[in-house]
Design a protein that fits this description.
Length: about 240
């Protein structure tokens, strides 16, 4: 990286840091850039309950919807960004297998945020973990810290982007839980596209929400709960 690039990074970090202080509490630059006019609140914690028992083996509706919504290629090369993927889990002793959608788990205590040197990785008050591409310097510390392998690095120039989901070469990115849709009162694309209704999205903090009621009545689990990260993505039948 040359001196000009270093100076630009330094200027951006300083300028954005000052701007963040000037914005009213609860607002984030990401929200302003995406037309989100109301402050997010810790009273809400967005999450998902994924029913692995009804998630069909070989079905990729959720993955395809994610790729289409966020302008991803959906390729299988190591250099392709993949915000959501299907993994197959098999019990060696009993032979039982599951098809598991895997994405950013939107942890309450996200290790990606802890290791980020610029503050590009951050968690909104409503629990959504995001990356500010203007602050990301592409160091990829967050990718190494994520136990779910849920982050991708953009290697190539990008084309035909969704204006609501700006991306940038040389930056890290991951599932944003379709924050641009949530802020408009819509569901994430994966939940909307699931033909088996295996993905239930909602406010985990609202005891009267459908997802909170469901979690109280069925057994659910968090992936790598032993790490104490308290993910916002829960799995039924895991």
């Amino acid at each position: 990286m040359n001196d000009t690039q270093n100076q630009r990074r330094s200027f951006l970090k300083t300028s954005l840091g000052v701007a963040a202080v000037a914005i009213a509490p609860g607002f984030l630059l990401f929200d302003v850039a995406h037309g989100h006019s109301e402050a997010v609140s810790a009273k809400v914690r967005w999450g998902m309950l994924i029913n692995t028992e009804s998630c069909a083996d070989g079905c990729n509706d959720c993955v395809n919807a994610c790729n289409k919504e966020n302008g991803l290629s959906g390729g299988t090369l190591p250099t392709d960004s993949q915000w959501m993927r299907k993994i197959e889990i098999k019990d060696i002793s009993g032979g039982h297998s599951l098809s598991l959608p895997m994405m950013c788990q939107h942890c309450e205590h996200p290790p990606c945020v802890d290791v980020c040197p610029t503050g590009a990785s951050f968690k909104r008050a409503d629990g959504i973990v995001l990356v500010d591409r203007h602050l990301c310097i592409g160091c990829r510390y967050c990718m190494m810290a994520c136990p779910y392998k849920a982050r991708s690095f953009v290697h190539e120039p990008l084309h035909d982007q969704n204006p609501d989901v700006p991306r940038g070469r040389g930056t890290v990115e991951a599932c944003s839980m379709c924050v641009h849709r949530i802020d408009k009162g819509q569901q994430p694309a994966c939940a909307e596209a699931c033909s088996n209704k295996s993905i239930l999205f909602g406010n985990l903090n609202d005891p009267d929400s459908e997802i909170a009621k469901k979690i109280r009545t069925v057994a659910s689990a968090q992936v790598r709960s032993d790490l104490g990260l308290n993910p916002g993505i829960r799995y039924q039948g895991l």
